[in-house]
Specification:
10 strands, Spore Coat Polysaccharide Biosynthesis Protein SpsA, Chain A, 8-stranded mixed beta sheet, alpha/beta, two-stranded antiparallel ribbon
Length: about 220
């Protein structure tokens, strides 16, 4: 099994300070969707945030909410905290700004990792997505060393890791929605994702109604 870590810190400047974890898609928040998906393959769930109280009402007691050991140091600090307290050897790390994360993709990456790799990171549509990656627990020590030395970027971490790149072809032909790498950074992103979600739901509803009509006829 995997540990699951959701990074819910940051200043959310693109959303005018609104916590992206609490944005809604349909009837559920991003956070609710992520926890539901992670429960399919994770027996250990952690949320890392610099402001726990708004999130506490959205989770049950089986989810741990923790804060950074290195406050104000960005996403690497959140990863360090989550990996340090993870109960399993491998941890699936996601950003709270990703509404379509995929447990199927995470499990596929885990089984496809080479034994000498510290991490597995997907590349979809020619873009790496480190915040839907699988990381070895030992990465916490590497991140801690980087933060102590003043390095705070994901690029600095990737330069230190032996990581496996999971090409898009790995996910194609399987029941994995390629939107699992979708990220929402701004209100424009959020509006686009919401419109696409509503359109897909309307299309599905129309197809169901047409199927019922054809069956009844």
């Amino acid at each position: 099994m995997l540990s699951g870590v959701i990074l819910a810190g940051g200043d959310n400047r693109g959303m005018e300070g609104k916590n992206r974890a609490l944005l809604k898609l349909g009837s559920k928040t991003f956070l609710e969707r992520q926890l539901n998906e992670m429960r399919k393959c994770c027996n250990d769930l952690i949320i890392v945030t610099n402001d726990p109280f708004p999130l506490m009402r959205s989770v049950d007691r089986g989810v741990r909410i923790i804060t950074d050991y290195y406050p104000g140091k960005g996403a690497l600090s959140g990863m360090h905290a989550g990996l340090s307290l993870a109960k399993n050897t491998h941890t699936w790390v996601v950003g709270c700004h990703m509404p379509y994360i995929s447990a199927t993709a995470a499990q596929l990456m885990l089984t496809s990792m080479k034994e000498d790799c510290d991490a597995a990171i997907p590349r979809v549509a020619h873009c790496l997505t480190p915040f839907h990656g699988i990381y070895e627990k030992r990465c916490s020590e590497i991140i801690g060393g980087l933060l102590d030395s003043g390095y705070e970027t994901m690029t600095s971490l990737l330069n230190e890791l032996q990581w496996c790149e999971m090409e898009e072809s790995l996910f194609q032909g399987r029941p994995i929605d390629s939107r699992f790498v979708t990220e929402v950074h701004t209100y424009v992103d959020y509006e686009r994702v919401t419109m696409e979600f509503d359109a897909a739901n309307l299309h599905a509803q129309t197809e169901r109604e047409e199927s019922l009509w054809s069956t009844s006829g």
